[in-house]
Amino acid sequence: MNEAALHALIREGIAGDERAYAKFLELIAANLRQYFRRRLFEGPDQAEDLVQEVLIAVHTKRQTFDPAQPVSPWIYAIARFKLVDHLRRTKRRGVQVPIEDASDLF
Hints:
Order of helices and strands: HHHH
Number of strands: 0
Strand content: under 5%
Largest sheet: none
């Protein structure tokens, strides 16, 4: 991500420029997809779900962005928290096998 371009786009978006804001979301979505696909082994659907969660969080919290700060660390902090939440939700404790399939284990 080009930090200066992203910073300009989010500032313009917060100021009311819908095109700039849409471009900002498009750019960060592409980078977030790569970020999550490298960290998840569950498939592209899980990564896309997390991308959407981050985009929603960025949108709802965009007024909290401090224009004096870089935008990338703000975005990746949100992404990291969403990833940790996802991993906690999907944490598996051993393998569960239906009782009907128990004979296949022996």
